[in-house]
Amino acid sequence: MLRSDKIHSASSKKMSQKKNAQPKKGLHPRNPHRERYDFAKLIQSTPELAQYVSENPYGDLSVNFSDPAAVKALNKALLSHFYKVNYWDIPAGFLCPPIPGRADYLHYIADLLAESNDNTIPQGKGVRGLDVGVGANCVYPIIGHRIYGWQFVGADIDPISIKSAKFIADANPSLKGNIKLRLQKNADNIFTGMINADEVFDFTLCNPPFHASLEEATAGSERKVRNLAANANKKQKPRQTNFNAQTKPVLNFGGQKAELWCPGGEAAFIQKMIKQSAEKAGQCFWFTTLVSKKENLPEIYQQLQKAKAVDVKTIEMSQGQKISRIVAWTFLTEEQQQEWRQERWSN
């Protein structure tokens, strides 16, 4: 029996045994990744995934999340199976993001837009989003377009990331023409130079650099990999070696400088973002960003008040034990919001 056939048989057995299992904790109700991965179907979409799937110490089919190649293969399979993306790849060493969390952010943005639109999610090509720091993976625009039909502009300061994201967008007929990529040539700018004078966006999104230095980023990534390996081996069965910790931790999700760290870290980046958003106040309905560190919130709220944001919302997200949040703000008054709805979302 071929390996993929064995996995199909094992997957069917596991799914049958756990058909009453609860969805993954914390993910958005519309997130298709709330359920356990059906590896038989994922392998059918992406056969190369089969070599990385095995039974973990808990008796479930899984992949070794401390193995960069396994994480990348899983991402390919998820994007193929759920979002009909035929081609997806990233250069070695670039950020390979967890798909479920990225999808969550977009579903919460859809809810945010719906709250401003009589509880109806604006969909289709008339809705435009700006992804600040699109990365080589282009995941946010991919998911946002495939689920809601939105169009995107992806901005990044790294030319390799822009080249990779553009190749992904152009290589997939379902994405081509719906995702534009722009190189930010000035590292001090976020919205400046990316939002042209004659254009508007319904929302922006951003996963800002988390760390303040390369050393901090490296230590954080290695700690994450060690934790993954330790959890995998915690209840390891005798003579089972599928999930042994590697001698030297590998950055399983990757990431270049601009993706992982910047001077001042997350707080400084978001502060700059808020300042520049005020300069584009009438050109975007909702500015949003992820905030990983809860202790940064008071300063963020203070900066938003100083920038004279009209409305500020904080949306909590969680995936398992990981807690994060989205902070969203708008400079539009109620009257301006009503005009925006009528002009852009009434069709």
Automatic annotation (TrEMBL):
Record's subcellular location: Cytoplasm
Enzyme Commission code: 2.1.1.181
InterPro entries: METTL16/RlmF, rRNA_lsu_MeTfrase_F, SAM-dependent_MTases_sf
Annotated spans, Disordered: 1-33
CDD domains: AdoMet_MTases
Cited SUPFAM superfamilies: S-adenosyl-L-methionine-dependent methyltransferases
Catalyzed reactions: adenosine(1618) in 23S rRNA + S-adenosyl-L-methionine = N(6)-methyladenosine(1618) in 23S rRNA + S-adenosyl-L-homocysteine + H(+)
Protein name stated in the entry: Ribosomal RNA large subunit methyltransferase F
Organism encoding this protein: Photobacterium leiognathi
